[in-house]
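Minutes, project check-in

Agenda point 3 was the complex the collaborators sent over. CS summarized: two entities, 515 residues total, and the question is how they sit relative to each other. Sequences were read into the notes so everyone works from the same version.
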Amino acid sequence: MSAATLISGLLAVEVPYWASAIIKLGVVALVVPTAALVLGYVFLLKMMSFMQSRLGPMEAGPYGTLQLLADGLKFIQKEDIFPEKADRAVFALAPLVVLVSTFLIYVVIPTGPDAVVAQLDVGIFYALAVSSLSVVGILMAGWASANKYALMGGLRAAGQLIAYELPLVLAVMGVVIQAGTLDLQKIVAAQANGEIFGWGGIGNPFILTQFVGFFIFLVAVQAETTQPPFDMPVAESEIVGGYQVEYTGFRFLFFFMGEFGTAFAFAALAAVLFLGGWALPWGDLTHWGFNIAGPAIMLVKVLAVSALIFWFRFTYPRLREDQLQRLAWKFLIPLSLVNIVVTGIFKVVL
Amino acid sequence: MIAEHVAFGIIAAVMVASALRVVTTRDIVHAALYLVIVLAGVAALFLLVGAEFTGITQVLIYIGAVIVLFLFGIMLTRSDFDQDEETDHKRKFPAILTALLLLAVMIGALVDRFGDMELDAAPQTTAEVSDELFSQYIVPFEAVSVLLLAALIGAIVIARREEGG
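CS then shared the predicted structure for the full assembly.
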Protein backbone atom coordinates (compact mmCIF):
# COMPACT_ATOMS: atom_id res chain seq x y z
CA MET A 1 0.00 0.00 0.00
CA SER A 2 2.09 2.88 -1.30
CA ALA A 3 -0.13 5.71 -0.03
CA ALA A 4 0.19 4.28 3.48
CA THR A 5 4.01 4.51 3.28
CA LEU A 6 3.68 8.15 2.24
CA ILE A 7 1.44 8.96 5.21
CA SER A 8 3.80 7.11 7.56
CA GLY A 9 6.74 9.00 6.03
CA LEU A 10 5.11 12.40 6.47
CA LEU A 11 4.02 11.84 10.05
CA ALA A 12 7.16 9.87 10.97
CA VAL A 13 5.05 7.25 12.79
CA GLU A 14 3.70 3.84 11.91
CA VAL A 15 0.08 4.34 10.82
CA PRO A 16 -2.38 1.46 11.26
CA TYR A 17 -4.63 0.45 8.36
CA TRP A 18 -7.83 2.03 9.68
CA ALA A 19 -6.12 5.37 10.37
CA SER A 20 -4.65 5.56 6.88
CA ALA A 21 -8.09 4.76 5.46
CA ILE A 22 -9.58 7.66 7.46
CA ILE A 23 -6.80 10.04 6.35
CA LYS A 24 -7.37 9.06 2.70
CA LEU A 25 -11.12 9.67 3.08
CA GLY A 26 -10.37 13.05 4.65
CA VAL A 27 -8.03 14.04 1.81
CA VAL A 28 -10.64 13.19 -0.85
CA ALA A 29 -13.37 14.92 1.16
CA LEU A 30 -11.20 18.08 1.29
CA VAL A 31 -10.01 18.02 -2.33
CA VAL A 32 -13.44 17.86 -4.00
CA PRO A 33 -14.97 21.06 -2.50
CA THR A 34 -11.62 22.88 -2.88
CA ALA A 35 -11.45 21.87 -6.55
CA ALA A 36 -15.01 23.08 -7.10
CA LEU A 37 -14.19 26.40 -5.37
CA VAL A 38 -10.99 26.97 -7.38
CA LEU A 39 -12.66 26.26 -10.74
CA GLY A 40 -15.75 28.26 -9.81
CA TYR A 41 -13.74 31.31 -8.72
CA VAL A 42 -10.90 31.35 -11.30
CA PHE A 43 -12.95 30.49 -14.37
CA LEU A 44 -16.69 30.85 -13.79
CA LEU A 45 -16.48 34.15 -11.89
CA LYS A 46 -13.27 35.83 -13.02
CA MET A 47 -12.31 34.54 -16.47
CA MET A 48 -15.88 34.83 -17.77
CA SER A 49 -16.10 38.39 -16.40
CA PHE A 50 -12.86 39.47 -18.06
CA MET A 51 -13.94 37.92 -21.37
CA GLN A 52 -17.12 39.98 -21.13
CA SER A 53 -15.27 43.19 -20.17
CA ARG A 54 -16.50 43.36 -16.59
CA LEU A 55 -14.90 42.90 -13.18
CA GLY A 56 -16.94 40.09 -11.64
CA PRO A 57 -17.22 39.84 -7.83
CA MET A 58 -14.95 42.36 -6.04
CA GLU A 59 -16.49 42.87 -2.60
CA ALA A 60 -16.07 39.63 -0.62
CA GLY A 61 -12.37 39.37 0.20
CA PRO A 62 -9.51 40.67 -1.96
CA TYR A 63 -10.65 40.62 -5.64
CA GLY A 64 -13.75 38.73 -4.55
CA THR A 65 -11.87 35.57 -3.62
CA LEU A 66 -14.29 34.75 -0.80
CA GLN A 67 -17.42 35.20 -2.93
CA LEU A 68 -18.09 31.46 -3.34
CA LEU A 69 -17.52 30.78 0.37
CA ALA A 70 -20.10 33.48 1.13
CA ASP A 71 -22.46 31.91 -1.41
CA GLY A 72 -21.91 28.51 0.19
CA LEU A 73 -22.74 29.88 3.66
CA LYS A 74 -25.90 31.42 2.22
CA PHE A 75 -26.95 28.08 0.69
CA ILE A 76 -26.43 26.23 3.98
CA GLN A 77 -28.67 28.69 5.86
CA LYS A 78 -31.57 28.24 3.44
CA GLU A 79 -34.71 26.28 4.22
CA ASP A 80 -34.69 22.64 3.10
CA ILE A 81 -37.79 22.54 0.88
CA PHE A 82 -39.46 19.41 -0.51
CA PRO A 83 -42.13 19.82 -3.21
CA GLU A 84 -45.53 18.58 -2.00
CA LYS A 85 -45.80 15.61 -4.37
CA ALA A 86 -42.10 14.77 -4.39
CA ASP A 87 -40.89 11.25 -3.76
CA ARG A 88 -39.11 12.35 -0.58
CA ALA A 89 -36.51 9.60 -0.10
CA VAL A 90 -35.44 9.55 -3.75
CA PHE A 91 -35.48 13.36 -3.89
CA ALA A 92 -33.15 13.56 -0.89
CA LEU A 93 -30.80 10.83 -2.14
CA ALA A 94 -30.35 12.10 -5.71
CA PRO A 95 -27.75 14.88 -5.05
CA LEU A 96 -25.80 12.47 -2.84
CA VAL A 97 -25.57 9.88 -5.65
CA VAL A 98 -24.17 12.56 -7.98
CA LEU A 99 -21.67 13.72 -5.35
CA VAL A 100 -20.54 10.18 -4.45
CA SER A 101 -19.86 9.47 -8.12
CA THR A 102 -17.62 12.58 -8.18
CA PHE A 103 -15.78 11.53 -4.99
CA LEU A 104 -15.13 8.03 -6.34
CA ILE A 105 -13.28 9.36 -9.42
CA TYR A 106 -10.70 11.10 -7.20
CA VAL A 107 -9.71 7.79 -5.61
CA VAL A 108 -7.52 6.73 -8.57
CA ILE A 109 -6.09 10.07 -9.76
CA PRO A 110 -2.33 9.94 -9.08
CA THR A 111 -0.43 13.09 -8.02
CA GLY A 112 2.95 11.51 -7.20
CA PRO A 113 4.75 8.15 -7.03
CA ASP A 114 3.10 7.42 -3.65
CA ALA A 115 0.58 10.28 -3.53
CA VAL A 116 -2.50 8.40 -4.72
CA VAL A 117 -5.42 7.05 -2.68
CA ALA A 118 -5.52 3.69 -4.48
CA GLN A 119 -3.46 2.45 -7.41
CA LEU A 120 -5.71 0.08 -9.33
CA ASP A 121 -4.77 -2.25 -12.15
CA VAL A 122 -7.96 -1.15 -13.96
CA GLY A 123 -7.35 2.58 -13.15
CA ILE A 124 -8.82 4.57 -16.04
CA PHE A 125 -11.57 1.99 -16.64
CA TYR A 126 -12.64 2.36 -12.99
CA ALA A 127 -12.69 6.17 -13.29
CA LEU A 128 -14.91 6.08 -16.38
CA ALA A 129 -17.24 3.50 -14.79
CA VAL A 130 -17.85 5.44 -11.56
CA SER A 131 -18.27 8.71 -13.45
CA SER A 132 -21.21 7.11 -15.28
CA LEU A 133 -23.04 6.62 -11.94
CA SER A 134 -23.98 10.32 -11.82
CA VAL A 135 -26.61 9.72 -14.55
CA VAL A 136 -28.61 7.60 -12.09
CA GLY A 137 -28.59 10.49 -9.60
CA ILE A 138 -29.69 12.99 -12.26
CA LEU A 139 -32.56 10.72 -13.39
CA MET A 140 -33.59 10.25 -9.74
CA ALA A 141 -33.66 14.03 -9.26
CA GLY A 142 -35.66 14.57 -12.44
CA TRP A 143 -38.24 11.94 -11.48
CA ALA A 144 -38.61 12.60 -7.76
CA SER A 145 -39.17 16.35 -8.13
CA ALA A 146 -42.70 15.66 -9.54
CA ASN A 147 -42.25 18.57 -11.91
CA LYS A 148 -42.51 18.36 -15.70
CA TYR A 149 -39.53 20.63 -16.32
CA ALA A 150 -37.40 18.56 -13.95
CA LEU A 151 -38.49 15.35 -15.73
CA MET A 152 -37.67 16.80 -19.15
CA GLY A 153 -34.27 17.92 -17.85
CA GLY A 154 -33.56 14.49 -16.42
CA LEU A 155 -34.50 12.77 -19.69
CA ARG A 156 -32.38 15.20 -21.71
CA ALA A 157 -29.45 14.57 -19.37
CA ALA A 158 -29.78 10.78 -19.68
CA GLY A 159 -29.93 10.90 -23.49
CA GLN A 160 -26.91 13.19 -23.60
CA LEU A 161 -24.75 11.34 -21.08
CA ILE A 162 -25.36 7.94 -22.74
CA ALA A 163 -24.49 9.38 -26.16
CA TYR A 164 -21.24 11.01 -25.01
CA GLU A 165 -20.00 8.19 -22.79
CA LEU A 166 -19.10 6.23 -25.93
CA PRO A 167 -16.72 8.81 -27.50
CA LEU A 168 -15.28 9.42 -24.00
CA VAL A 169 -14.36 5.76 -23.53
CA LEU A 170 -13.27 5.28 -27.15
CA ALA A 171 -11.01 8.36 -27.03
CA VAL A 172 -9.20 6.90 -24.04
CA MET A 173 -8.67 3.62 -25.92
CA GLY A 174 -5.97 5.19 -28.12
CA VAL A 175 -3.91 6.13 -25.07
CA VAL A 176 -4.45 2.70 -23.51
CA ILE A 177 -3.26 0.97 -26.70
CA GLN A 178 -0.15 3.16 -26.84
CA ALA A 179 0.72 2.76 -23.16
CA GLY A 180 -0.29 -0.91 -23.08
CA THR A 181 -1.93 -0.57 -19.65
CA LEU A 182 -5.05 0.73 -17.87
CA ASP A 183 -3.07 1.64 -14.75
CA LEU A 184 -2.85 5.45 -14.48
CA GLN A 185 0.58 5.34 -12.78
CA LYS A 186 2.00 3.22 -15.59
CA ILE A 187 0.45 5.57 -18.19
CA VAL A 188 2.32 8.43 -16.47
CA ALA A 189 5.55 6.42 -16.50
CA ALA A 190 5.09 5.45 -20.17
CA GLN A 191 4.92 9.13 -21.10
CA ALA A 192 7.85 10.25 -18.91
CA ASN A 193 10.13 7.46 -20.15
CA GLY A 194 8.90 7.59 -23.76
CA GLU A 195 10.98 8.77 -26.67
CA ILE A 196 10.10 10.61 -29.88
CA PHE A 197 12.08 8.85 -32.63
CA GLY A 198 14.83 8.04 -30.15
CA TRP A 199 14.94 11.55 -28.60
CA GLY A 200 13.88 11.54 -24.96
CA GLY A 201 14.23 15.29 -24.24
CA ILE A 202 10.59 15.86 -23.26
CA GLY A 203 9.50 12.24 -22.90
CA ASN A 204 6.50 11.41 -25.07
CA PRO A 205 3.32 13.12 -23.83
CA PHE A 206 0.48 11.34 -25.61
CA ILE A 207 -1.08 14.62 -26.76
CA LEU A 208 1.52 14.60 -29.59
CA THR A 209 0.37 11.26 -31.03
CA GLN A 210 -3.19 11.20 -29.66
CA PHE A 211 -4.22 14.78 -30.48
CA VAL A 212 -7.41 13.42 -32.10
CA GLY A 213 -8.16 11.50 -28.89
CA PHE A 214 -7.46 14.62 -26.81
CA PHE A 215 -9.90 16.66 -28.91
CA ILE A 216 -12.66 14.00 -28.67
CA PHE A 217 -12.03 13.57 -24.92
CA LEU A 218 -12.41 17.32 -24.29
CA VAL A 219 -15.65 17.57 -26.30
CA ALA A 220 -17.08 14.50 -24.55
CA VAL A 221 -16.08 15.86 -21.11
CA GLN A 222 -17.84 19.12 -21.95
CA ALA A 223 -21.02 17.13 -22.65
CA GLU A 224 -20.61 14.75 -19.69
CA THR A 225 -20.37 17.65 -17.21
CA THR A 226 -23.37 19.35 -18.96
CA GLN A 227 -21.38 22.54 -19.50
CA PRO A 228 -22.47 24.96 -22.24
CA PRO A 229 -22.66 24.48 -25.23
CA PHE A 230 -24.05 21.11 -24.06
CA ASP A 231 -26.28 22.40 -21.23
CA MET A 232 -29.73 21.52 -22.54
CA PRO A 233 -30.46 19.40 -19.41
CA VAL A 234 -30.36 22.58 -17.29
CA ALA A 235 -31.23 25.15 -20.00
CA GLU A 236 -32.74 27.96 -17.93
CA SER A 237 -34.40 29.70 -20.90
CA GLU A 238 -36.27 26.53 -21.97
CA ILE A 239 -36.83 24.32 -18.92
CA VAL A 240 -35.90 26.72 -16.07
CA GLY A 241 -33.00 24.68 -14.67
CA GLY A 242 -34.10 21.15 -15.59
CA TYR A 243 -33.55 18.50 -12.95
CA GLN A 244 -32.24 21.13 -10.48
CA VAL A 245 -35.38 23.27 -10.59
CA GLU A 246 -36.90 22.11 -7.28
CA TYR A 247 -33.66 21.96 -5.32
CA THR A 248 -32.72 24.62 -2.78
CA GLY A 249 -30.10 25.21 -0.14
CA PHE A 250 -27.44 22.63 0.52
CA ARG A 251 -28.94 20.07 -1.88
CA PHE A 252 -28.49 22.55 -4.72
CA LEU A 253 -24.96 23.14 -3.42
CA PHE A 254 -24.30 19.38 -3.79
CA PHE A 255 -25.23 19.54 -7.48
CA PHE A 256 -22.97 22.58 -7.92
CA MET A 257 -20.05 20.81 -6.23
CA GLY A 258 -20.73 17.66 -8.25
CA GLU A 259 -20.65 19.58 -11.53
CA PHE A 260 -17.43 21.48 -10.85
CA GLY A 261 -15.78 18.65 -8.93
CA THR A 262 -16.40 16.34 -11.90
CA ALA A 263 -15.06 18.96 -14.34
CA PHE A 264 -11.88 19.17 -12.22
CA ALA A 265 -11.59 15.36 -12.04
CA PHE A 266 -11.95 14.99 -15.83
CA ALA A 267 -9.40 17.77 -16.36
CA ALA A 268 -7.06 15.82 -14.08
CA LEU A 269 -7.70 12.61 -16.05
CA ALA A 270 -6.95 14.50 -19.29
CA ALA A 271 -3.71 15.79 -17.72
CA VAL A 272 -2.71 12.25 -16.73
CA LEU A 273 -3.68 10.64 -20.05
CA PHE A 274 -2.40 13.23 -22.49
CA LEU A 275 -0.05 15.68 -20.74
CA GLY A 276 2.18 13.38 -18.72
CA GLY A 277 0.41 13.68 -15.33
CA TRP A 278 2.45 14.53 -12.23
CA ALA A 279 5.82 13.60 -13.74
CA LEU A 280 8.45 15.68 -15.49
CA PRO A 281 10.49 13.81 -18.11
CA TRP A 282 13.73 14.69 -16.30
CA GLY A 283 14.80 13.03 -13.08
CA ASP A 284 14.05 9.78 -11.31
CA LEU A 285 10.32 8.99 -11.22
CA THR A 286 10.62 7.04 -7.98
CA HIS A 287 12.29 9.98 -6.18
CA TRP A 288 10.40 10.88 -3.01
CA GLY A 289 10.43 14.59 -3.89
CA PHE A 290 7.83 14.00 -6.60
CA ASN A 291 5.30 13.42 -3.81
CA ILE A 292 5.68 17.12 -2.98
CA ALA A 293 6.29 18.51 -6.48
CA GLY A 294 3.79 16.19 -8.20
CA PRO A 295 0.59 17.80 -6.87
CA ALA A 296 1.89 21.26 -7.92
CA ILE A 297 2.79 20.02 -11.42
CA MET A 298 -0.63 18.35 -11.68
CA LEU A 299 -2.40 21.55 -10.57
CA VAL A 300 -0.72 23.58 -13.35
CA LYS A 301 -1.71 21.04 -15.99
CA VAL A 302 -5.26 20.66 -14.62
CA LEU A 303 -5.79 24.42 -14.66
CA ALA A 304 -4.50 24.56 -18.25
CA VAL A 305 -7.01 21.89 -19.35
CA SER A 306 -9.80 23.52 -17.30
CA ALA A 307 -9.05 26.85 -19.00
CA LEU A 308 -9.72 25.14 -22.36
CA ILE A 309 -12.96 23.58 -21.07
CA PHE A 310 -14.27 26.88 -19.70
CA TRP A 311 -13.09 28.80 -22.77
CA PHE A 312 -15.40 26.58 -24.90
CA ARG A 313 -18.08 27.09 -22.29
CA PHE A 314 -18.07 30.86 -22.62
CA THR A 315 -17.60 30.94 -26.38
CA TYR A 316 -20.18 28.74 -28.09
CA PRO A 317 -23.99 29.03 -28.08
CA ARG A 318 -26.13 26.12 -26.92
CA LEU A 319 -26.69 23.23 -29.38
CA ARG A 320 -30.13 21.91 -30.27
CA GLU A 321 -31.01 18.39 -29.08
CA ASP A 322 -30.80 16.87 -32.62
CA GLN A 323 -27.50 18.69 -33.33
CA LEU A 324 -26.09 17.29 -30.09
CA GLN A 325 -27.04 13.70 -30.93
CA ARG A 326 -25.77 14.05 -34.51
CA LEU A 327 -22.40 15.37 -33.31
CA ALA A 328 -21.96 12.37 -31.01
CA TRP A 329 -23.19 9.52 -33.21
CA LYS A 330 -22.25 10.70 -36.71
CA PHE A 331 -18.99 12.55 -36.05
CA LEU A 332 -17.26 11.82 -32.72
CA ILE A 333 -17.86 8.05 -32.53
CA PRO A 334 -16.75 7.26 -36.13
CA LEU A 335 -13.75 9.58 -35.68
CA SER A 336 -12.70 7.85 -32.45
CA LEU A 337 -13.09 4.40 -34.10
CA VAL A 338 -10.78 5.52 -36.93
CA ASN A 339 -8.36 6.83 -34.30
CA ILE A 340 -8.33 3.41 -32.58
CA VAL A 341 -7.70 1.57 -35.86
CA VAL A 342 -4.85 3.93 -36.86
CA THR A 343 -3.29 3.71 -33.38
CA GLY A 344 -3.56 -0.08 -33.50
CA ILE A 345 -1.82 -0.24 -36.90
CA PHE A 346 1.03 2.00 -35.70
CA LYS A 347 1.35 -0.03 -32.48
CA VAL A 348 1.82 -3.24 -34.52
CA VAL A 349 4.07 -1.70 -37.21
CA LEU A 350 6.42 0.32 -34.97
CA MET B 1 -10.13 -14.66 5.34
CA ILE B 2 -12.48 -13.87 8.27
CA ALA B 3 -12.86 -10.28 7.05
CA GLU B 4 -13.80 -11.53 3.60
CA HIS B 5 -16.43 -13.86 5.02
CA VAL B 6 -17.93 -11.02 7.08
CA ALA B 7 -17.93 -8.74 4.03
CA PHE B 8 -19.58 -11.45 1.94
CA GLY B 9 -22.28 -11.93 4.60
CA ILE B 10 -23.09 -8.21 4.76
CA ILE B 11 -23.15 -7.77 0.97
CA ALA B 12 -25.27 -10.91 0.49
CA ALA B 13 -27.79 -9.80 3.14
CA VAL B 14 -28.15 -6.35 1.56
CA MET B 15 -28.55 -7.93 -1.88
CA VAL B 16 -31.25 -10.37 -0.77
CA ALA B 17 -33.19 -7.65 1.06
CA SER B 18 -33.01 -5.32 -1.97
CA ALA B 19 -33.92 -8.12 -4.37
CA LEU B 20 -37.05 -8.82 -2.33
CA ARG B 21 -37.95 -5.13 -2.41
CA VAL B 22 -37.52 -5.12 -6.23
CA VAL B 23 -40.43 -7.53 -6.58
CA THR B 24 -42.58 -6.38 -3.64
CA THR B 25 -42.46 -2.58 -4.03
CA ARG B 26 -45.50 -0.97 -5.64
CA ASP B 27 -43.56 1.85 -7.33
CA ILE B 28 -41.83 0.77 -10.53
CA VAL B 29 -39.14 3.48 -10.28
CA HIS B 30 -38.32 2.30 -6.75
CA ALA B 31 -38.05 -1.25 -8.12
CA ALA B 32 -35.46 -0.08 -10.66
CA LEU B 33 -33.51 1.78 -7.95
CA TYR B 34 -33.49 -1.29 -5.66
CA LEU B 35 -32.16 -3.22 -8.64
CA VAL B 36 -29.21 -0.75 -8.67
CA ILE B 37 -28.33 -1.90 -5.13
CA VAL B 38 -28.53 -5.57 -6.15
CA LEU B 39 -26.28 -5.02 -9.18
CA ALA B 40 -23.81 -2.96 -7.12
CA GLY B 41 -23.72 -5.92 -4.71
CA VAL B 42 -22.82 -8.25 -7.60
CA ALA B 43 -19.96 -5.87 -8.53
CA ALA B 44 -18.79 -5.87 -4.90
CA LEU B 45 -18.79 -9.69 -4.86
CA PHE B 46 -16.66 -9.75 -8.02
CA LEU B 47 -14.18 -7.37 -6.35
CA LEU B 48 -14.19 -9.59 -3.28
CA VAL B 49 -12.93 -12.61 -5.26
CA GLY B 50 -10.29 -10.47 -6.98
CA ALA B 51 -11.98 -10.15 -10.37
CA GLU B 52 -11.37 -6.40 -10.68
CA PHE B 53 -12.03 -6.08 -14.40
CA THR B 54 -15.31 -8.00 -14.24
CA GLY B 55 -16.47 -6.01 -11.21
CA ILE B 56 -15.82 -2.63 -12.84
CA THR B 57 -17.43 -3.83 -16.09
CA GLN B 58 -20.50 -4.79 -14.03
CA VAL B 59 -20.74 -1.19 -12.76
CA LEU B 60 -20.17 0.38 -16.19
CA ILE B 61 -22.58 -1.85 -18.13
CA TYR B 62 -25.35 -2.69 -15.68
CA ILE B 63 -25.62 0.41 -13.50
CA GLY B 64 -24.21 2.95 -15.95
CA ALA B 65 -26.12 1.75 -19.02
CA VAL B 66 -28.80 -0.94 -18.46
CA ILE B 67 -30.44 0.67 -15.40
CA VAL B 68 -30.25 4.09 -17.01
CA LEU B 69 -32.11 2.70 -20.03
CA PHE B 70 -34.71 1.12 -17.68
CA LEU B 71 -35.27 4.43 -15.89
CA PHE B 72 -35.26 6.31 -19.20
CA GLY B 73 -37.93 3.98 -20.61
CA ILE B 74 -40.10 4.10 -17.48
CA MET B 75 -39.97 7.88 -17.23
CA LEU B 76 -40.60 8.38 -20.94
CA THR B 77 -43.71 6.17 -20.98
CA ARG B 78 -45.30 6.54 -17.53
CA SER B 79 -45.08 10.13 -16.43
CA ASP B 80 -48.08 10.00 -14.07
CA PHE B 81 -47.08 11.26 -10.64
CA ASP B 82 -50.35 10.37 -8.92
CA GLN B 83 -50.11 6.64 -9.41
CA ASP B 84 -53.57 5.20 -8.98
CA GLU B 85 -52.85 2.11 -11.03
CA GLU B 86 -50.32 0.09 -9.11
CA THR B 87 -47.85 -2.40 -10.41
CA ASP B 88 -49.57 -5.65 -11.19
CA HIS B 89 -49.14 -8.41 -8.58
CA LYS B 90 -51.93 -10.63 -9.92
CA ARG B 91 -49.67 -13.37 -11.31
CA LYS B 92 -47.43 -13.58 -8.29
CA PHE B 93 -47.87 -17.32 -7.62
CA PRO B 94 -46.69 -18.50 -11.07
CA ALA B 95 -43.87 -15.95 -10.75
CA ILE B 96 -42.79 -17.34 -7.35
CA LEU B 97 -42.96 -20.89 -8.73
CA THR B 98 -40.81 -19.99 -11.75
CA ALA B 99 -38.28 -18.22 -9.51
CA LEU B 100 -38.03 -21.23 -7.17
CA LEU B 101 -37.57 -23.64 -10.09
CA LEU B 102 -34.84 -21.43 -11.57
CA LEU B 103 -33.16 -21.27 -8.15
CA ALA B 104 -33.19 -25.08 -7.86
CA VAL B 105 -31.73 -25.54 -11.36
CA MET B 106 -28.97 -22.98 -10.73
CA ILE B 107 -28.02 -24.40 -7.31
CA GLY B 108 -27.87 -27.86 -8.85
CA ALA B 109 -25.69 -26.75 -11.77
CA LEU B 110 -23.34 -24.59 -9.66
CA VAL B 111 -22.81 -27.18 -6.90
CA ASP B 112 -22.28 -29.90 -9.49
CA ARG B 113 -19.62 -27.87 -11.31
CA PHE B 114 -17.89 -25.79 -8.59
CA GLY B 115 -18.84 -27.70 -5.41
CA ASP B 116 -15.38 -28.49 -4.05
CA MET B 117 -13.35 -26.02 -6.11
CA GLU B 118 -10.97 -23.62 -4.32
CA LEU B 119 -10.79 -20.19 -5.94
CA ASP B 120 -7.41 -18.68 -6.72
CA ALA B 121 -6.85 -16.06 -4.00
CA ALA B 122 -4.57 -13.78 -6.05
CA PRO B 123 -6.37 -10.96 -7.89
CA GLN B 124 -6.55 -11.46 -11.64
CA THR B 125 -5.02 -8.64 -13.68
CA THR B 126 -6.61 -7.20 -16.81
CA ALA B 127 -3.72 -8.51 -18.93
CA GLU B 128 -4.42 -12.08 -17.77
CA VAL B 129 -8.14 -11.71 -18.56
CA SER B 130 -7.45 -10.46 -22.09
CA ASP B 131 -4.80 -13.15 -22.70
CA GLU B 132 -7.31 -15.88 -21.88
CA LEU B 133 -10.12 -14.15 -23.75
CA PHE B 134 -8.13 -13.89 -26.99
CA SER B 135 -6.54 -17.35 -26.90
CA GLN B 136 -8.50 -20.03 -25.02
CA TYR B 137 -11.95 -18.44 -25.35
CA ILE B 138 -11.59 -16.77 -28.75
CA VAL B 139 -14.35 -18.79 -30.45
CA PRO B 140 -17.09 -18.15 -27.83
CA PHE B 141 -15.97 -14.51 -27.70
CA GLU B 142 -16.39 -14.06 -31.46
CA ALA B 143 -19.70 -15.97 -31.40
CA VAL B 144 -21.06 -13.57 -28.77
CA SER B 145 -19.88 -10.60 -30.87
CA VAL B 146 -21.78 -11.87 -33.92
CA LEU B 147 -24.86 -12.56 -31.79
CA LEU B 148 -24.83 -9.02 -30.39
CA LEU B 149 -24.35 -7.57 -33.88
CA ALA B 150 -27.37 -9.54 -35.10
CA ALA B 151 -29.45 -8.25 -32.17
CA LEU B 152 -28.33 -4.69 -32.93
CA ILE B 153 -29.29 -4.92 -36.60
CA GLY B 154 -32.58 -6.59 -35.67
CA ALA B 155 -33.44 -3.75 -33.28
CA ILE B 156 -32.74 -1.13 -35.94
CA VAL B 157 -34.85 -2.99 -38.55
CA ILE B 158 -37.82 -3.31 -36.14
CA ALA B 159 -37.59 0.33 -35.07
CA ARG B 160 -37.47 1.52 -38.69
CA ARG B 161 -40.51 -0.55 -39.73
CA GLU B 162 -42.63 0.98 -36.95
CA GLU B 163 -41.73 4.43 -38.23
CA GLY B 164 -43.94 3.55 -41.21
CA GLY B 165 -41.46 4.82 -43.80
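Noted in discussion: Residues 81-349 of chain A form one domain.
Follow-up: revisit at the next meeting once the mutant set is ready.
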